Amino acid sequence: MAFTAEVRQIVGDEHCLEGPGLDPRYAQDLWGSDRVGDPRLVVRPADTRQVSELLRLCSAHRRPVVPQGGMTGLVSGGVPGPDEVVLSLERMNTIEELDPTTRTMTVQAGCTLAQVQDLAAEHGLMFPLDVAPRATATIGGNVATNAGGLRVLLYGMMRDLVLGVEAVLADGTVVDGLHKLVKNNAGYDLKHLFIGTEGTLGVVTRATLRLSPAPTTRYAAMCGLPGLDAARELLHRLQSGLPGMISAYEAMWDSAYEVLLPLADETALPLKGSYPMYVLVECSGVDAERDFERFSAALAGSDDIVSESVLARTPQEVGALWAVRERIPKEVLKMQPLFGFDLSLPAARLASYLQEIHDELRSHWAAVRLIVFGHLGDGNVHIAVVTGETTRQRKAQVEEIVYRAIARHEGSISAEHGIGFEKLPYLGYSRTPAEIALMRLLKQTIDAGNILNPGRVLPVQPDGGQR
Fold this sequence. Notes:
Strand order of the largest sheet: 15-12-14-13-17-18-16
Distance between the termini: 31 Å
Structural class: alpha+beta
Oligomer: single chain
Helix content: 25-40%
Radius of gyration: 23 Å
Shape: globular
């Protein structure tokens, strides 16, 4: 009670929420993982000063803290236990500055991705990061998980789009690194301690984002292809023929595209035929007179590997093609129970990897289905495994098969969603013992009391630490 009273003095009574029975949005990932939290204390600070005071207080009382953004993750990294303080940054949602000279934007961590995108567009600029839950995903969460999304192929991950970060350490120390410089080699680049580390080393409170000139043309095409080799070859041809213009390249295996067939009346499917592979390619540029012709010609020049294609020229047509791609995960999530995976593999290994895990899974579940789609241009695929069983009791067995094979094919168990709780047992399949030891050393050094997101990314040791 004394601890809660001090919390209330910092944030005010209305922003210190006590449970049980708190809003479910504080308890579970947006997509609904197996882990459901039990938040008993949710604190909503208004600014960096309050975050600093709260962390100093929690450190003194050795109270574990779980930072939360929009809760759009997939690995339960923000899902709290009953003894953990939920630090929600939802009130810190101000865009502080858009600087058109440096093409930067400085924002608080609780700003949504959509807010940032919309303001950049008003100034003829673009923040390239894009993920489906853009209206609820926050910048702080995007930074903490090093989000990827739809246009990594041309613009890179969140790490490539952040110039500076302000973060608060476990003891309340504010690390102000809100730099606008593209080139800054003055010592260690400390922002990388907080980008992609899932709130385990510090709480991101503000960020300076790198904007790009907005393209004036945007076209797309949906293509049916005879297989994965043709899809990879088409990407290489388009990138060579249209350098710097292919902004997205999304792949849908037939198993994924087929989930839309029953919805043909409400989601217009662009292609008439059925194919082993479908790709959605987006082309962006600045020459309104020539870009569409160049894009059309590049596709026409690949008719030896493209079985069928439909081009989209207007924003409405482009949006309709993207609606097809974005509908797939929504429909796949209805196929419960399923087991979802976010993986990254070298392009040359992808086909053999998928065949290998399909064969091994089928040896245990004769009716198993692999529904595969994702950002093929950067090697990131999403796999939904449907075993045909009616329970999730053998989840660990499915995961072991999928992740063990990843190690053999030199891939990553997490392409863009982090480790959190869900992938914790499998970190060793993507990181060497030396790498994990260095991670533990960083955690022990920066958060000696282990109060920031304990048990995520690295396992808690018997003594309570993560070393």
